[in-house]
Amino acid sequence: MTVHDTIVVLDFGSQTSQLIARRVREAQVYCLLLPWDSDPEQVLALQPRGFVLSGGPASVYEPDAPPLPQYVLDSGRPLLGICYGMQLLAHALGGHVAPASRREYGPAQAQVTQASPLLAPLSDQPQVWMSHGDRVDRVPPGFAVLARSDNSPTAAMGDLERHRYGVQFHPEVAHTPAGAEILRRFAVEVCGCTPTWTAAAFVEEAIACIRRQVGEGRVVCGLSGGVDSSVTATLVHQAIGERLTCIFVNTGMLRQGEPEQVARTFRDQLNMPLVAIDATETFLSALERVADPEQKRKIIGEQFIRIFEREARRLGKVDYLAQGTLYPDIIESAAADRPGARRIKSHHNVGGLPERMELELVEPLRYLFKDEVRAVGELLGLPRAIVWRHPFPGPGLAVRIPDSAVTWERLEMLRAADAILLQELEAAGWYHRVAQAFAVLLPVRSVGVMGDQRTHGYTIALRAVTTDDFMTASWARLPYDLLDRVATRITNEVPGVSRVLYDCSNKPPATIEFE
Ligand code: XMP
In a mutational test of the pocket of ligand 1, which residue from 436, 513, 514, 515 has the highest number of ligand atoms less than 8 Å from its CB? Predict the structure, then answer.
């Protein structure tokens, strides 16, 4: 890969650490998020132009609090500590951190007290987002207070000569409107990075990299219709042409029109070799009478691998499996390998297949965030409907029929209701204003009237959420008129449905999907 100027974010466990890396990359500077206790040699081998120390849940006074790695200070590179990261800097460099008397959480008005390359000439009173207990009440020698707020005597501090900075607030979150600019200034102006990290540069490098890895080998890629596998397949196809074969398995659990769209886009428009399998019957019979969601996921995963493997073997000798693994998956599995870490769900990949078939993985998106994948997809000319499609779970509609078994009739009812919701969202300009929207078929029947007839139909729940990262989500405030149109159409046009509900639960405590 061409060498891009790189910023390393050391992760001390904040919920928003990934956002720091995303914001820096939005400034077109390459940025990696690494655990705070990463091997110093490996970190320094990246030749970081600067370090960001993330926030985290610890207090510098706790006995097991993660410390500031010495090599970071010794590197002489510019530093930016955020929240806990700033407290670490203060603590390590001879300032004083006052233990929390009470937490400060939420919006605050900062007052810039001294000009610096980091904050000036921003507004004198930037709106910032605070979330901390401890605070810095004396800055270390060589540092000046750059900003304060009502509850934080040091909202920002800096040693302008050594290019070391700290902010008590979170510049990475949207609630700090000037935050993206602060991170850009740190990367570009303080660290001197040249902003070269663009979608076009990525595409060029990814293609060269795939060619190097694959040589004369042959690759299979599982297409799902989602943006990750579509961008992966397109990059590999541009790199090695016909030596790529895509496999698309219609599980029968997909949304309306999806199988046709995949064939149209990849086979007809992009001229990729595509094997499309309709395995609906196989999936339906494997799922017969299964109501438990984990069972459903397991069965679908197993069937999928079995079919994929069969089709891949049919192609003759294949050496590589291309997969749309993204950077957050890599970050999370690195975190999950560490002691005491929670296990994450790994429902995306064709798990186990590479070992069984002795395939090597090709993962061109492994350093990209989702928004970067979308930018690459647009650059590659993929249809907007694919690039901007809402996420869709691997087990598909099966997990949107909660508490009951999947049958063809139920799937068709759900598919029709879901299609109406998506059409009306599109028509009203709301599809792209929400992060995910879908229908759910509830196992509740209730009485209705249609003309002079009493009916006894199913209940559809509508779900639409806004979210930045899918870890938390708010229910979308869809206009009543829009909900009315959707509900009326569903009850009129989908036989067997007599009632429509709108889900007003946030995550947490609810999840986005029902199962
Ligand atoms: P939850 O329901 O956990 O969803 O709030 C968060 C995001 O993950 C998606 N999701 C899944 N994706 N297989 C997937 O590939 C699954 O089993 C699965 N369950 C949830 C969900 O659609 C949302 O985008």
Answer: 513
